[in-house]
Amino acid sequence: MSRGRCWRTTVEPVEPVERFLAHLSDVERSPNTIKAYGHDLKDWFVFLTGRSLDWQAVRLDDVGEFVAWLRLPPAARAGRVVVLPSVASHCGEATVNRKLAAVSAFYQHAARNGVELGDLLTSWQPAGRRGTAWRPFLHHLSKSRPQQRREIRLKAQRKAPRVLAPAEVQSVLDGCVRLRDRLLFAVLHDTGMRIGEALGLRHEDWAAAEREVAVVPRINDNRARSKSGQPRTIPVSVGLVRLYADYLHGEYGDLDSDYVFVNLWGQPRGHPVGYPAVYDLVRRLRRTTGVEFDPHWFKHKSDTCTVTTAACGQRSPKRLATTGS
After folding, report:
1. Cα torsion at 36, 41, 46, 48 (round to 10°)?
2. Cis upstream peptide for 16 (omega within 30°)
3. Helices (H), ranges, 207-269
4. Assigned architecture for domain 166-323
5. Residues in Cβ contact with 252 at an 8 Å cutoff, skipping those fewer than 6 apart
6. Interval 179-197 mean pLDDT
7. What is the CB neighbour count within 10 angstroms for residue 46?
8. Contact of 149 with 122, CB cutoff 8 Å
9. Are 323 and 316 in contact (CB under 8 A)?
10. What is the pLDDT confidence band of residue 75, given thresholds at 50, 70 and 90?
11. Which residues are CB-contacts of 152 (< 8 A; sequence separation ≥ 6)?
12. Which residues, in sequence order, are CB contacts of 225 under 8 Å at separation 6+?
């Protein structure tokens, strides 16, 4: 989704939504976050359009109906299909809460720009407790007045993160034909980095003698992003350092690039690897290894497990990131 542009569907793009998404872009929210907000707000305005509701005049009851509408299968949302009680809800509790959060954030942004709708999804609570993330002008003169809190929310069970078993991790590593790909997944596992942080690594971030890798938030040519705005240093295993050295000697060679993970067989050669190439690789590895995994799952490791991280077969304990100054 481009900066400041909303979606196009059965409803026309809404200017306040475009301003809201542009604001998120201006404050450097993740592109994935902006895209998710856009999709969630699309559902809200499709719902409003189907009921001929003005977005500036909705009531709390309308939001409750929106929740019920989200739980319906898409084919039944127009009201022309009867839904049996045995039919499972289309949107789970966590998804509904995420969409409500997007709608709430949108209305808070509109309120900050002069639209009196900031309390649409909120209820009163005593002063001093946690409220919304923003404060109105002259808030310090009204601390004793009730503050706001979002009222409508479904109770959602917290799901345990999917953890890859040691044998699954080893299967993924062994399934990599190229050292570059093996190093990528070994970095994810050994350090707990997010995929965007790994794709943004530069050679200068590696301190082989100290067995450390630095995660530095910066603008990357492949649009890889670090979710945290703070740099941090992560201790790594001997095996990972050896695998990095093998990769430089065996595949990287004398290529002149600052990035660690680059195109070596595709074009443009030397350009940093992007998200699409990684997910293509993940799909191939799923087919060849039989392991259903996502790059994010490498972040989730048991506190007691040790797994093979590199071609040399050394085993290393879970490594925790330390915040840099």
Report:
1. 160
2. no
3. 238-247
4. Orthogonal Bundle (1.10)
5. 180, 262, 264
6. 94
7. 16
8. yes
9. no
10. low
11. 60, 63, 64, 67, 100, 121
12. 30, 31, 196, 200
